[in-house]
Design brief:
globular; alpha/beta; two-stranded parallel sheet; UDP-glucose 4-epimerase activity; EC 5.1.3.2; carbohydrate metabolism; about 350 residues; seven-stranded parallel β-sheet; NAD(P)-bd_dom_sf; about 40% helix; Rossmann fold; 11 helices; single chain
Amino acid sequence: MSKILVTGGTGYIGSHTVVELHNAGYTPVIIDNLSNSNIQILDQIEKIIGIRPEFHQFDLCNEAKVKAFVQENPAISGIIHFAASKAVGESVEKPLKYYHNNFFSLINLLNAYQGKNINFVFSSSCTVYGEPDSLPVTESAPVKKAASPYGNTKQIAEEILEETAGAYNNYNFIALRYFNPVGAHASALIGELPIGVPQNLLPFITQTAIGKREKLTVFGGDYDTPDGSCIRDYIHVVDLAKAHVAAIRLLEKGNPNGGYDVFNVGTGNGYSVLEAIAAFEKASGQKLNYVVGPRREGDIIQVWGDVTKSSEQLGWRAELGIDEMMASAWAWEKYLKENPIG
């Protein structure tokens, strides 16, 4: 079985991808510094797949440790790189933290694998598109000036990968441009586990519904959309995890598009914030306490992806809809109430 390194593998998307890699017959190996995750997630993964994944705790910004790991683990044939700081608001307040962490971790990995054949899947973001000129947005849409240092790290990282692929022939890269991951594993044993106040919509919805938060604020009700709230392409995290497995498989077969390629990973459908709230209320049976507040700086009005390329070339398509997203997120929140983590 091929060994696949998953950096940030105890995080939200990383933990689900570890499960799906195992289900697909791979052997996942995790590196995580636990700066934005919890070691107990390893226990949760073990409950799902029946074995405890190999785990290494260190910071990928430590170049010596990265090089030592690569030398000591020659059997690794692929990397799925999640490890990065990811809060848009914090990146505006602490840009140097984001540039240091997100670039040094990536560059250290690339340097350590120089001269070794490696398949590399990069965790990118639809933030690279900014406010799209047309919808649904395709992979050929222009990359616009980033609205935050976080978004800028994704744009520049993609440039680093593309230029590295052009200079060396041992790297094979796919960048997956995610839309908005939500939901949790069907077992309700892993899901999104925000530290402190959630930065994303759905954990704020579930925490409000269960009583951790007094109310939810919808940022803006006067946008040029059917109901006035922002529109996003929400994707179930399990579908997203499976897209990473599909990307590794495509790289193993030899991507016909060459050493660097990008794919949108979404459902191809847009839901407004108010539609997402209504879907949650329907799935959970809970009436949500929310208010419509002023717009939030940096929010784009609407974005959803064209996923034709992912369907035709990656051989992947999202299977789970908004109802499954909301029901699984609520099941995870209820599980956490009875079984606190962290």
